[in-house]
Design goal:
Blueprint (H helix, E strand, L loop, with lengths): L5 E9 L6 H12 L1 E5 L6 E2 L29 E2 L4 E2 L6 H17 L3 E6 L2 H9 L10 H8 L3 H12 L11 H15 L29 H14 L12 E9 L2 H17 L2 H10 L4 H7 L1 H10 L5 H28 L5 E4 L4 H13 L1
Parallel strand pairs: 1-6, 1-7, 2-4, 2-6, 3-5, 7-8
Length: 362
């Protein structure tokens, strides 16, 4: 857990799937001597490449290929860091993010956190502490049916290591300790969870762009602004990182069009073979199904539970639903006080880059 304030600015780029986050992050990094930290709950897994959208080519030519790095690309962090089939969760991400962040700033570079897993991003921005773990009444209702002895066994077996300072002296506190442990160790897949926050409306923010100043001077000014800024509602829960958060917003119609096209491209270019290879490597069908989306439905197709047409149709619907849930989570972050500067995803990468630097400069 992070307790010391870090003065190096952190740029956050978030958005739903197929919004163009990686291209924007790479373009920003190329102009400010930055490195990228991935905030994607499935791109951490080796061998899960096509289905998770590890578009390695988008990192080139700015980032150099380097096999000493886990992702094989120098300057790109938290991709390909664990074996497919292993467990990974928000607690691990907080730990690994801190290591990557410290490594980047130790080399006098600018960290850029980029991804679509809202829980991982929020964990960094809010520095998740036990008091901030949300309540899940459904989960509590399940636990209420168990005896005190059963609850203690559950806690000791599954959650004691990640919640070592928990007070379990009463039944109420024991249930809360289990709830916190469940939240910290929960893996994030392409599916709905008991903790998910419901949808609400939001307004996209429009900003004017001043293109008169070069990028280098813009960022020098922006860096001073970010470093010297005092904590306010845009830096909730202690302001442990001096951040500026940017989201890419695209219309539902365009988002759906991009998702559909990308899915069919991936199906025609090795996605099914990738899932088949994972199964043949010894990863259980149950584990791949747990990862959700492409891995869930293609696994069900490969084991004979779905026809190809049914798999394709259900997968496409599921990805559209996932993108909507991503936006729901980002809106919930805003309601908690995390300011997100929304960029128009219909602009070119250079136009979004200019808009981003303009926001940094103000």
């Amino acid at each position: 857990m992070i307790h010391k304030q870090n003065n190096q600015p952190l740029i956050v780029i978030l958005g739903p799937t197929a919004s163009g986050k990686t291209k924007l992050a790479v373009n920003i990094a190329s102009k400010i001597n930055g490195e990228i930290i991935s905030a994607d709950s499935r791109q951490v897994y080796r061998g899960m490449n096509i289905g998770t959208g590890k578009d390695y080519k988008e990192y080139l030519p700015f980032f150099k290929q380097n096999q000493d790095w886990l992702a094989g690309i120098e300057g790109v962090h938290l991709i390909d860091i664990v074996e497919a089939g292993d467990s990974y969760n928000v607690a691990f991400f907080q730990r690994d993010f801190q290591k990557a962040y410290q490594d980047i700033i130790s080399h006098n570079k600018i960290p850029i956190l980029c991804g679509g897993t809202g829980m991982y991003i929020e964990a960094v921005l809010r520095n998740y502490e036990d008091t901030q773990v949300p309540i899940s009444q459904d989960f509590r209702n399940e636990l209420s049916l168990k005896t005190d002895e059963e609850l203690e066994k559950i806690f000791q077996k599954k959650y004691a290591l990640v919640n070592q300072n928990a007070d379990i002296s009463t039944r109420k506190r024991l249930i809360r300790a289990i709830e916190i442990g469940e939240f910290k160790t929960r893996e994030v897949g392409g599916r709905r969870s008991a903790f998910e926050i419901q949808d609400s409306r939001f307004e996209k923010q429009n900003r004017t762009v001043d293109r008169s100043e070069p990028y280098g001077e813009l960022f020098k000014t922006a860096r001073r602004t970010v470093q010297n800024r005092t904590a306010d509602r845009s830096e909730p829960y202690g302001g442990l990182f001096r951040t500026q958060n940017f989201g890419i917003s695209i219309s539902v119609e365009i988002r759906r069009e991009r998702i559909t096209k990308r899915l069919h491209d991936r199906l025609e270019n090795g996605l099914i073979e990738e899932v088949k290879s994972l199964l043949e490597s010894g990863i259980s069908a149950e584990k791949l199904i747990f990862y959700g989306l492409e891995y869930k439905f293609i696994t069900e197709y490969l084991v004979g539970d779905l026809s190809y047409d049914e798999m394709t149709k259900r997968l496409e619907i599921a990805i559209h639903q996932y993108a909507k849930r991503q936006m729901t989570f980002f809106r919930s972050m805003e309601r908690k006080g995390i300011k997100i500067n929304w960029l128009d995803g219909m602009q070119t990468v250079e136009e979004m880059t200019t808009q981003l630097f303009d926001a940094l400069n103000h």
